Amino acid sequence: MRTDTPHTIYRKDYASPSFFVDTVEMGFDLDPDATIVATRLTMRRNPASRGKTLVLYGESLRLVALRMNGKALSKRAYTLGHGTLEIANPPDEVVLEIETVTQPSQNTSLMGLYVSNGNFFTQCEAEGFRKITFFPDRPDVMATYKVMLRADKEKYPVLLGNGNLVEQGDLGDGRHYAVWEDPFRKPSYLFALVAGNLVCQEETFRLQDGRDALLQVWVEEGNLDKTQHAMESLKNSIRWDEERFGLELDLDRFMIVAVSDFNMGAMENKGLNIFNTKYVLANPRIATDVDFANIESVVGHEYFHNWTGNRVTCRDWFQLSLKEGLTVFRDQEFSADMIGTDSGRAVKRIEDVRVLRQAQFPEDAGPMAHPVRPDSYVEINNFYTVTIYEKGSEVVRMYQTLLGRDGFRKGMDLYFQRHDGQAVECDDFRRAMADASGRNLDQFELWYSQAGTPRVTVATRYDEMSNIYTMSFTQSCPPTPGQPKKLPFHIPVAVGLLDSSGRDIPLRLQKGGTEGSSEGVHANDPAPTTMVLELTQQTQTFDFVGVLEQPVPSLLRNFSAPVVLEYDYTDAELGFLMANDSDPFNRWEAGQRLALRRMLSLVREVKQGAALDASLLDTALTDAFRVTLTDTSLDPAFRELALTLPSESVVAEQMEVVDPQAIHAVRRFLRRSLAQALRAEWLAAYEANLTPGEYSPDAESAGKRGLKNLALSYLLDLDESDGHQLAQSQYDAANNMTDRLSALGALVNSSAPGREDALARFYDEFENEALVIDKWFSLQAVSYNTDVEAVRALMRHPAFSLKNPNRARSLIFSFCSGNPAQFHAPDGSGYAYWAELVITLNALNPQVAARLARVMDRWRKYEPALQRNMRNALEDVAAAKSLSKDVLEVITKSLAN
């Protein structure tokens, strides 16, 4: 661990590498306690960097031998520093041979080469390759790789590497070998190897150009019956990328490998994707509908990286969203297309925006706020954030909104034509979009360079004499660390107008009217009902003509930009939109606004001492919920989303000073009130959405289960024996994990007499299924009934281990992030627990510890008494010895801003 002051790296200081690497040849003698790595690099000086020292990076390595151009280097010929190996005044062309030893079995950071359950795995993004050998470990150093793996054949019968298998055989001493060659130049972060006792499902897949590719999903023995969905998702991903973007698989084979000890969700190593088991293993017995959907999405995401990330990669880590934001957009589009219906696409869009609002908007408003293309970092692992991924995806989506689907495809084609095989910048992608479309997108660059969530305020006016409806827009963006003032963004705002019958009004803009009224507008037909207005100034006005009556505006349709939109809707208008808007996203949005308005009002009442009783309620929200719940013309999946109240974290974001206890009390009260008022309707929805017969994770069936289980959760909020029995009966009869886990969760959040027995039975049935036991821990961690002492007791359970990231996240992260009322206990016990676990995890796995540290970065937003306890906990972590730079960066920024 580092104890020195961490060094800040700035984008403005980028300089091209002093040496390029053309080829990498590696030999591994795999041993869990001491793996020997022999590396031969052919290098040449960058002409722009003549006279510079050759610098290689290395961590946790023992250097055994170093030769340059065939001659051994004495210790006087190089300098072995803190994480670096430097050779002064090398010749212009270098063949460097390096022999190192690493200890995979001791590598609890899970970066570089490590052992999990007796098997070897690697994780090299962002800077893990330097834990394998000394190397100029940066993404703009691209080379071809040829790798020989040698290991005990009985212990490690499977030897996998990047690219294509070119040779394999026995070594005659109980060991065997395999040689893998990747014909495509790649940065070191895409290197991978796997060795162990694994089995695979494999299929031959015919590509669009007529070639056959071998597809393999590798898992540990006993998990082969859980790989079919991942295989189908991979095949669908390959076909979709061929058809949507004309991009084909470029290797003879493509492999997915599942590992239970993994810091991330998955990794796109060229041809050898390594996945967290959570995003591979699934069958109806162990996986929920959400698991099946997530596997499809993540498999797609990692496969799509083959082009958006691998064939074209990042010049430096500041450009991370170049690959991640773009690829998230691609996996979102893929998942929506796999559903295949307009309502299904709308549901997917709502789900994606919920993630953005619940996670990214708070990040934009906190001390760790940063642009989509950051200007500086201390530890790059801390910048694998929702801003880079989800906001980055929204930025890419805006290109498609502005240019149209065909225009976006032309931009993608030009991007690959120009940059295949290169390490490039976000600006290169923007220039390809601009040049392919003929549009000036210079101002659009601000989405990459400015942090924060823009706010768009809308005012409207209707002139019944001229039949003109005017929309005036004002944009602003709050200050963020290092950026006190912001320039206007280029914001596409999709709008519609509804008449008094709820029908869309054809939209026509006045020609030559007020500023901006005839510019920046496009439509697919002469009189569209949705129009994209382009905001490029601080204030702009648009006049719509031929509007024969006072309309209700539908603003920011399909969430056309990642902004906070402010418009003073009345409750009646929100109810009207919730019942009538043709844009499904805004129909959902209207209900959320109405519910959020009611919840914030009740929180204010509670803080003023009012008792939560029926006198505080009106019928507007109940009536709106009843209309949606009973409207069987709506997709069940949409109704589930529309009838889910805003989360406690979303409510907290709307408050200047957060009172977690008041928010929790209000949300529970409102749920119980809706449960009581709509009891008959919830029961009817439950019965109408049963899915008898064999389980299928298809969108229609999953949507029915989602609405049915939402209804069950509302009924259990009444905490009555009838509801308890309904949940118990569902648990006993369930033929799939979705229904079983939903019933168990409803029981755990109730006072049902059988809740402890149900938890025990569930554990006994699934104790050998690690991913299911993760669910068991998580379900208890977020329960209303679980306080910090209950979490500590669960940590003493024999199935719990801090060393496994999935298990740590399932309990500790779920409690700290997903149970705000208990975590923010007034006595500060939750914060003391957090500090203790951040310090403990820091010694085991700094990357996981830093993620947990982020839970407290918004501490200044809470009530003064909570703030004091939170600051004390932050200072306890800051005072701990040997903090990693991962954790130190988060804690330092949290205390400073």
UniProtKB/TrEMBL annotation:
GO BP term (any one): proteolysis
Pfam families: DUF3458, DUF3458_C, Peptidase_M1, Peptidase_M1_N
Keyword Protein transport: no
UniProt similarity note: Belongs to the peptidase M1 family.
EC number, as in UniProt: 3.4.11.2
Names of required cofactors: Zn(2+)
Record carries keyword Metal-binding: yes
Keywords assigned: Aminopeptidase, Hydrolase, Metal-binding, Metalloprotease, Protease, Zinc
MF-aspect GO terms: alanyl aminopeptidase activity; metallopeptidase activity; zinc ion binding
Residue span(s) of domain Peptidase M1 membrane alanine aminopeptidase: 230-444
Domain Peptidase M1 alanyl aminopeptidase Ig-like fold: 452-568
InterPro entries reported in the protein's UniProt record: Aminopeptidase_N-like_N (IPR045357), Aminopeptidase_N-like_N_sf (IPR042097), PepN_Ig-like_sf (IPR038438), Peptidase_M1 (IPR001930), Peptidase_M1_dom (IPR014782), Peptidase_M1_pepN (IPR012779), Peptidase_M1_pepN_C (IPR024601), Peptidase_M1_pepN_C_sf (IPR037144)
Functional summary from the UniProt entry: Aminopeptidase N is involved in the degradation of intracellular peptides generated by protein breakdown during normal growth as well as in response to nutrient starvation.
Gene behind the chain: pepN
Source organism, top-level taxon: Bacteria
SUPFAM superfamilies, per the entry: Leukotriene A4 hydrolase N-terminal domain, Metalloproteases ('zincins'), catalytic domain
Catalytic activity, reaction form: Release of an N-terminal amino acid, Xaa-|-Yaa- from a peptide, amide or arylamide. Xaa is preferably Ala, but may be most amino acids including Pro (slow action). When a terminal hydrophobic residue is followed by a prolyl residue, the two may be released as an intact Xaa-Pro dipeptide
Designated name of the protein: Aminopeptidase N
Domain Aminopeptidase N-like N-terminal: 89-190
Domain Peptidase M1 alanyl aminopeptidase C-terminal: 571-896
CDD domains, A to Z: M1_APN
